[in-house]
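Q: Start with the shorter request: fold the first protein.
A: Done. Sequence, then structure:
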Amino acid sequence: MNLNSIPAFQDNYIWVLSEDDGRCLIVDPGEAAPVLHAIDENGWQPQAVLLTHHHNDHTGGVKDLVKKYPDIVVYGPAETQSKGANNIVGEGDRLQILGLEFRVIHTPGHTLGHICYFSAPYLFCGDTLFSGGCGRLFEGTANQMFASFCKINALPEDTLICCAHEYTLGNIKFALSLLPEDPDLNEYHRKVNELRAKNQKTLPTTLKNERRINVFLRTQDNDLIDVINKETNLQQPEARFAWLRSKKDNF
């Protein structure tokens, strides 16, 4: 199985899993043109589309892809039905695609119906968890997003986090504003800076790495708790998560 990423818009990635025989699945095609170009260039044969949520930068290319490949199956949560999903899926569903079994995980927060797709080692998590960061709360609550992070954090440490945006550098800068002496954050910041200076992507990341550098996964970390306690005394990890998200919104 080959993991490919197609840049789109300013900072989106459209993920494609392809077999050596050319069969492939496409994740969150926000626009069709770069996907169709990659299909022609690589000789791919699209079998399915996976949608994580309804936002246009994740669904805008579905109509044109279905027009060219009318038999393609488009999986997505109920909120994507109007965007072209023809097979509605939800928490606990298991999909057989390209010989892989994908488990659907409901991860509300960014939107209420947001889902992720997991087939070890791949996690297609849309706008829930980013490298070093967390999706904005457009529809859900911080408590919902915290619960979604807990679901993701329960996956194996070698899980490949295939998120949909190149937000890593900004996320690490935010984390360093809280923990400027943290050695893991400083080392990752150096690596990410080098990659972005060469216009190279920082994704996918691993869950093992995220547990070290993503402050939204470190709400039980004593160093981070000490920082938060300088401003407010929050006893519950959910409350600390909400504090972090609020700080990031205004960073």
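Q: Next, the second protein, separately.
A: Sequence, then structure:
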Amino acid sequence: MESLPLIDLRPLRDGSDPRTVADALDAACTDLGFFVVTGHGLDPDLRAATMEQARRFFALPFEEKMEIAIAKSSCHSGYVPPKTEILDPTAGADGKEALDITRDRAADHPEVVAGTPLHGPTQWPASLMPDFRSVADDYARACLDINAHIMRGLARALCLEDDAFVPMFTDPLASLRMLHYPPVPEGDTTPGAAAHTDYGSLTLLAQDDIGGLQVAARQGGWIDVVTPPDALVVNLGDMIARWTNHRYVSTRHRVLNPTSGHRYSLPYFVAPNFRAVIEAIPSCVEPGTDAIYPPIGAGEYMLSRFGATHAYLGAPTGPQTDMHTVLVSR
């Protein structure tokens, strides 16, 4: 049975053998762009506490969750009800529900003052969940630390300076997404999360043991993703595929709805600063050829993907046959 590469990040994080880790990352990123990491530094207790907060939030009455509906947000933060997000226009809307927790930026934040899209205050659950914010903030900080280490490893793998990507992530478009996949009857064809690629740079995923995540295999078919306890699944998004001129790949994946039990997962999505320009790294472009994609601003790309996939921004939620497959978060 095919499985994802397993990479121990500890020698990268502690500096004892970063080259070996960089080589392992390079191999995984040129193959599927999906891998499983251990030695990442995320406290298992913090992971468990964050997963418990997700379970508690999704157990709230629908009306209470809708008090922070994402449609009320100026920065794509809040509750996403079932069947209001579409990943594959031929499959219809997903059955999952989500809570998007963006980076909290106060009214006096320079980008908020400037009216920059995707910058603003986070919508937090009601006061009956007093520990929610502190737990989510701690989890986000831990994920950004892991992201920084992996991006340093990728820079080394690409023969760049170790800190080459650092200026791109001084104020990243990062968000914690809590997801709930309720069980469906046998034979129900509603997608949990239809096949798609992610559109940012890295996704760091903590999942429970219910199963359902599948990655498209190079030779066809799907790889069921099973992880050791406390490991994280990492995958590349479309921005890194653009950066590397497809030397590194962003691979389609999906989540099947459970037929028994409830699936919960915690993807942490990272994308560069809003004004960062995503263009091919020169060393990834063959001499005498053009880059596959023209440069694009990270914020511009993010906005285009949100607009294509969320009903509150005008995306259709029924099956469509005249649209390209859209790219969105898992």
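Q: Describe the second briefly.
A: The chain has a mean pLDDT of 92. Residues 132-157 form the longest helix (26 residues).
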